[in-house]
């Protein structure tokens, strides 16, 4: 059976709103921070074990005096350059596209590399490359560390141990004191090493008088040793609280045994034990703490 239909398409618009694309600096503390003077020129995704790469450039324009973006290459190119509109080496950059619905799509996520400058008699250009975060899969993790025996934080022997390299774990300082680094007498090659941040010493060698001047070592080793001593004392206080709790529990056990013996010998002892276990205000005593 033959048939027919009519097709009358609607007129297509000749233009439309482009998807906004922005370049952002990302860090865990501030989140996404827009870089309005940086534009993403292209993004490359390759097949195989190659991380993606993105090409960026700065917008150098001093036509608008109200905009404080860097407009000269010498404000951007030196490795020591800094500021809210300067991308430093190894900064993490994210390229986001905002859909009409308001959702964001990540087009690129990676780390900036050293910039390059192109100059001519009439123009200047500063650009740089960024490599995707997957490049970190090829990094070699730091393993092991050099640690000094913490019973002598000044001159103790330094040994190589197979423990993770962690700086200030949980906020606890773990560096040798100022003035007592390895090769301290040769500043060009001296370096600090690790200490155990949770060592508990009795007595604390940092509080003992130094034979050279009679003053405690803690008065001469600077801020780092003071922080370390504070961490040590904090741990020592926790140990003291634990020993006190164990002592209280032992007292409670003796009281319970006494009450049990009193129960076997007569009601008078049992009544005394009950008064000891429950106070006048209804609070439970040593019996429940055990």
Structure characterization notes:
- This protein has three domains: 118 residues; 109 residues, no CATH class; 41 residues, no CATH class.
- It has three helices and ten strands, in the order ββββββββββααα.
- It is α+β, with helices and mostly antiparallel strands.
- Strands 1, 2, 3, 4, 5, 6, 7 and 8 form an eight-stranded antiparallel beta sheet that branches. A two-stranded antiparallel ribbon has the order 9-10.
- The longest helix has 44 residues.
- The C terminus is likely disordered.
- Helices cover 20% and strands 21% of the residues.
List strands and helices in order, with pairings.
Layout: E1 21-27, E2 31-34, E3 38-44, E4 53-58, E5 92-98, E6 104-112, E7 116-119, E8 124-132, E9 145-148, E10 158-161, H1 222-265, H2 267-277, H3 286-289
Antiparallel strand pairs: 1-2, 1-5, 3-4, 4-8, 5-6, 6-8, 7-8, 9-10
Helix pairs in contact: 1-2
